[in-house]
């Protein structure tokens, strides 16, 4: 071999090593972790992956009520490239029954290699209902005292919380409640601790309020003129809020009142609030239900949207905060 040819061969090999040709293995898919989560009427799923550089992998979806014989087809999962969550597939199955266990089959395939089937089981959430069989107490503004009766109500939220147990209903009477109380005593699944406006006037929480416990139900309370009307602490789950669906859109320079008044209709109305910081009128989009609770107000435009409002966040990924401002 002549010296010139040898030099050309060496340069060619070095070029291949520095700039490798895309391989079959990169196009083939390697399945990773799957996750599934639910709301009252839907379930969502994610499937992490690596490879599939040419994006020709697919995930078909079938589902059925656990124990049923027939499978139904759902829309395929969507291919997602995301530097935060990683690469993978994601999608939802909609219009399901509440409080029902489903089996979901995910069928991953790639013509370049890397097929796998996985069967996941998930239960949709219970349609929220006020607990029955518990105690009923009365609360008025104050800083201590009372026994929770009609004639001698608890004075202040902290005093009432000291006796709170699952299924208890606290009727919060009209007045201004100072400070920023945290609802820190949890109920249990399907048996909430309820904080409900008594219906005798506005129960105003002048400094806002916090959620620090799971399985808590809030209804008929009012927060006004707060940048963050609520703040969730330690990622509570299954926090429910029920209010009259109405829209309050003051001028951009006026702080907006936010009312959490209970609906008198027979069928419960579940609502979420969307807060924008726009200085001109905007159309708020409908919030999603598989994620943290929507904002409970603010000093900008506040639009009340009728929807399912269930604060039951998905498990936090590493590096995310355990507190949520609303």
Describe the structure.
The protein is mainly beta and about 325 residues long. It folds into 2 domains: about 25-125, Immunoglobulin-like (Sandwich), CATH 2.60.40; about 130-325, no CATH class. It has 3 helices and 25 strands. It has helices at about 5-20, 25, 155-160; strands at about 30-40, 45-50, 60-65, 70-75, 80, 90-95, 100-110, 115-125, 135-140, 155, 170, 175, 180-185, 195, 205, 210, 215-220, 220-225, 230, 240, 255-260, 270-275, 300-305, 310, 325. It is elongated and about 75 Å long.
Relevant terms:
seven-stranded mixed sheet, 3 helices, mainly beta, four-stranded antiparallel sheet, 2 domains, 25 strands, disordered C terminus, about 325 residues, Immunoglobulin-like, elongated
How are the secondary structure elements laid out?
Elements: H1 3-18, H2 24-27, E1 29-38, E2 43-51, E3 58-65, E4 72-74, E5 78-80, E6 88-93, E7 101-109, E8 116-123, E9 136-140, E10 154-155, H3 157-161, E11 169-172, E12 175-177, E13 182-183, E14 193-197, E15 203-205, E16 209-211, E17 216-219, E18 221-224, E19 230-232, E20 239-242, E21 257-260, E22 271-275, E23 302-306, E24 310-311, E25 324-325
